[in-house]
Write a structure and sequence with these properties.
With about 425 residues, this protein is of the alpha+beta class. It is built from 14 helices and 12 strands. It has a 6-stranded mixed sheet with strand order 1-5-6-4-3-2, with helices on one face. Helix 8 crosses helix 9 and helix 9 packs parallel to helix 10.
Length: about 425
C-alpha cells in the first residue's frame, strides 16, 4: 500500500504523509510557504514542482502536441493485465535524448532532472498486456520506443494534458498525461542492435537482454525495449509495466555477470570507493572475500522515505555466496546496485565481498528512480579507491566520511558482521 500511495500522491504531499499527525505537516507548509524550510529539506518540493510545472504548462495550450520523443514510452501497472501504454512526448523538438536517458544525468541537479522529466507528456491508451499489436497507437508506441534517435511525433489527445507529476522510487518522474486519440511519426530507424532481437521471435527474452547488453546498448534502452514487449518468443511477448521491467533487466544482467564473478580470484586488499550526488553520500567497501553483497540505506528525517520520522531510518538487504531466493526487502535499488558492482568486478577481473553504505540527507527532496542508485554506484566505482591493509582501517576511513557512526552501520549489517567474524576465525587459525 505504501508504494501505491507514493506512486499517486502529488510531490507536495510526499512529506505530509503521516498516519498519526497529518494535519501538523499541512499547517507547517502553510506557515512556511517555501521560505523557512520548516520541513528540514534543502529545497521545497512544492516549489520545485510548481516552477517546473508552470514552465511546461505554458507549452501545453491545446490537445495536440508536436514534439520529439527522446524516444520514450511508459507502461503502467495499475489494473494489470489491463494497463495504460503510450509514448512520452515533450512539446519541444530537436535533440531531446537527455530527457529519457538517465545515464546522462550524473552531474545534474534535482531541479534539472525534474525539469527534464516533467517536459514529457504521457499519452495513454488502455490495452491488455498481450495486445501488443492491437492498433496503430500500440504498434507505433512500441516501435518508437526502439528508435535509435529522437523522432518527431504528432500526438492528438482526447483532452488537454494535465495532472500531477508522478513520483516513484523505481521509475523516473514524468509529467502531465491524457488519453491518446491518435499519433503519427516522422521517419525513424530502430537501433540495429535491438532490431536483431526484435525480429528474432524464437529468441528468449533473457537471451535478448544479454545479447543487446553485450553489444553495448545502454541499460535504460534495454529496459524500455523489454517493457514494450520487443523481446521474447512470439507467442509470449507482452507489455511489461515500466517499473517491473527496470528491476527485471537489472536482475537478469546482474545475475549473469555474477556467474563469472564467483569464479574470479579475490582482491588482495581492502578498497573504499566514494561518491556524492543529490545530497546522497555513498561509501562502497570491497574486501578480500568470496562473493557477498549488501546495500544499506540510511534515510534522515524529512527525506523522501522518512518524511515524518524523528530518527534516522536504516534498512538493508544482503546476500552471500549462495545468493538469495526472496525479493530484496530494499526493493529495485538492490538489483541496480548489484549490477553496477559486478560490472566493476568484471573490469577488475576480481571477486570480492561488497558493502554499499548510502546516506540520504534532507536535500534528497523527492524520488527520481532506481537509475539514481545504479548510476551513483557506477560513478563511485569509476573513482580511484582508497586502499587499506585491514578491515578495521577501511571501516574507520569510511566511517570518517559518513555522518552516522560506523558502529551503527555494523549493527544494521549482516555482511559486516559476517566479515568481522570470519576475520577472527582466520586469526585464530593462524595462531594454532
Amino acid at each position: 500500500m505504501d508504494n501505491y500511495i507514493r506512486s499517486v500522491v502529488p510531490a507536495d504531499s510526499l512529506f505530509e504523509l503521516s498516519a498519526s499527525k497529518p494535519t501538523n505537516y499541512n499547517m507547517r507548509c502553510v506557515i512556511c510557504k517555501g521560505s523557512r524550510m520548516l520541513c528540514g529539506k534543502a529545497s521545497c518540493p512544492i516549489l520545485v514542482r510548481f516552477y517546473v510545472k508552470s514552465k511546461t504548462f505554458k507549452l501545453l495550450d491545446s490537445n495536440q502536441i508536436h514534439g520529439s520523443t527522446p524516444p520514450g514510452a511508459f507502461i503502467g501497472r495499475m489494473g494489470y493485465p489491463y494497463v495504460y501504454v503510450g509514448p512520452l512526448v515533450p512539446p519541444i523538438t530537436g535533440d531531446t535524448a537527455i530527457l529519457d536517458t538517465p545515464e546522462m544525468w550524473g552531474n545534474r541537479t534535482m531541479e534539472d532532472i525534474v525539469d527534464f522529466r516533467f517536459k514529457l507528456v504521457r499519452g495513454k491508451h488502455y490495452v491488455k498486456v498481450t495486445d501488443i499489436e492491437k492498433n496503430k497507437i500500440v504498434s507505433l508506441t512500441r516501435e518508437l520506443a526502439l528508435a535509435d534517435a529522437p523522432t518527431g511525433i504528432e500526438a492528438k489527445f482526447t483532452k488537454k494534458p494535465g495532472g500531477d507529476i508522478v513520483l516513484d522510487d523505481d521509475v523516473q518522474p514524468f509529467g502531465p498525461s491524457a488519453p491518446l486519440e491518435k499519433i503519427d511519426a516522422e521517419n525513424y530507424k530502430i537501433d540495429r542492435r535491438i532490431e536483431k532481437a526484435y525480429y528474432d521471435t524464437d529468441m528468449k527474452a533473457k537471451d535478448a537482454v544479454l545479447e543487446t547488453y553485450r553489444s553495448g546498448v545502454l541499460v535504460s534502452k534495454i529496459q524500455r525495449a523489454f517493457s514494450v514487449g520487443a523481446f521474447g518468443q512470439a507467442k509470449l511477448r507482452k507489455f511489461v509495466p515500466t517499473r517491473w521491467s527496470i528491476t527485471a533487466v537489472d536482475s537478469i544482467l546482474g545475475l549473469e555477470l555474477l556467474k563469472k564473478t564467483k569464479t574470479l580470484p579475490q582482491i588482495g586488499e581492502y578498497l573504499v570507493f566514494e561518491h556524492k550526488q543529490l545530497d546522497n553520500i555513498w561509501e562502497i567497501l570491497m574486501v578480500p572475500s568470496e562473493w557477498c553483497y549488501e546495500l544499506i540505506e540510511a534515510w534522515y528525517p524529512r527525506t523522501v522515505w522518512n518524511p515524518t520520522g524523528n530518527t534516522i531510518a536504516i534498512f538493508s538487504s544482503a546476500e552471500f555466496f549462495e545468493g538469495r531466493k526472496e525479493y530484496a526487502e530494499i526493493g529495485g535499488c538492490y538489483y541496480a546496485a548489484r549490477l553496477a558492482v559486478n560490472e566493476k568486478l568484471h573490469e577488475m577481473q576480481r571477486q570480492a565481498g561488497v558493502v554499499i553504505m548510502r546516506e540520504a540527507h534532507p536535500g534528497y527532496i523527492m524520488p527520481v528512480g532506481v537509475w539514481n542508485v545504479r548510476e551513483a554506484v557506477r560513478a563511485a566505482l569509476r573513482n580511484t579507491p582508497v586502499r587499506f591493509n585491514t578491515l578495521g582501517e577501511a571501516l574507520n576511513y569510511a566511517g570518517s566520511k559518513l555522518a552516522i557512526p560506523m558502529s551503527r552501520w555494523i549493527k544494521e549489517s549482516a555482511v559486516l558482521k559476517y566479515l568481522m567474524f570470519q576475520k577472527r576465525l582466520d586469526e585464530y587459525a593462524e595462531k594454532t
